[in-house]
Amino acid sequence: MRKDLLALGLVAAVAGCSARAESERRGAEAEPAEDIRIDREAIQSLLPPQHLASVIGTARASVEPDVAEISLGVTSSGATAPEAVRSNNQDMTKLIDALKARGVAARDIQTSQFSIMPRYNRPAEARPGVPEELTVSKVVGYDVANTVRVTSRDRGKIGDLIDAALQAGSNQMYGITFRLADRETVLAGLRARAFDAAKAKAETYAKRAGMTLGPVYQITESDPSWTPDPSPMAANVMPAPAAAAPPVGAGDEEVTLSVTVVFELIAPKR
φ and ψ at 28, to 5 degrees? Predict the structure, then answer.
């Protein structure tokens, strides 16, 4: 009888352990997965807007240049290179002194080119009876060219400066370039006007599309265009007798600036 009771108790204990294990297993399987929350607004902010309008705004202005740059100089010759250099040094010293006497500051006179070139004779045509040495090109001298860029901040003195340079011996002139000293101030005003023009276009399109204009999504500025393009023209000039200063007209420059602005368009809520 006692053995039977012990056997029953052992079976019951084993059954209880099995039941608890099965219950724990089922509970683990039934345990819900971790709750993952998706921030839809954060994801939406990373995506481009659904409705965009890309427009171009352009602004123009006519401005009067207030700075002139004159490129001029002297070409001197000599039988030898040192002789040509010495001659050119004397000529350039005379030219620079004449410019300074007309009020040009030393900082506004800058050397832009200096060269020493051999000068060759014209050989005879090779033909019977002509000595061979006469058919070979030979160095007969040297030319030295020295060019300076002169900056004039007074447009009324440009003609006087050219006249002074000619009287001082300048025999090379490569042109005059006019420019505006403070371009950034002009460009700042054009940027504001170009943006306003682009925004006005976008507002028109948004209204016609039944939407409202949203924030700016992107801005791209094109390189400003200056007309006329300040490219100097080259010219050779010879010393002239005393005469009235040549008339020089700078005219106006037209600058154009464009911006491409992309706006978000907001559709009405339904």
Answer: -65, -40
Bridge partners (DSSP) of residue 218 are 262
Q: Are 73 and 165 in contact, with CB atoms under 8 Å apart? A: no
Rg (the chain; Cα; Å):
43
Helix 158-167 crosses helix 81-101 at what angle (to 10 degrees)?
140
In whole angstroms, give the CA distance from residue 80 to residue 86. 10
CA separation for the pair 42, 51 (Å, rounded): 18
Torsion (CA) 150, 186, 225, 199 in degrees, nearest 10: 170
- Listed in sequence order, the residues at least 6 apart from 25 whose beta carbon sits closer than 8 Å to its beta carbon are none
Q: Which amino acid is at 243?
A: A
CB 197 within 8 A of CB 233: no
Measured CA to CA, the distance from residue 209 to residue 228 in angstroms comes to: 41
**Residue 121: closest CA among 103, 105, 98, 141:** 141
Q: What pTM, to 2 d.p., does this model score?
A: 0.60
- Quote the pLDDT of residue 121: 85
64-104 pLDDT, tens per residue?
888 999 999 999 999 999 999 999 999 999 999 999 999 99
46-60: per-residue pLDDT in tens?
666 789 999 999 999
Exposed e or buried b for every residue in 67-99, given b needs 16+ CB within 10 A? bbbbbbbbbbebeebeebbebbeebbeebbebb
pLDDT cut 90: percent of the chain above it: 53
Token match 């001029």: residue? 72
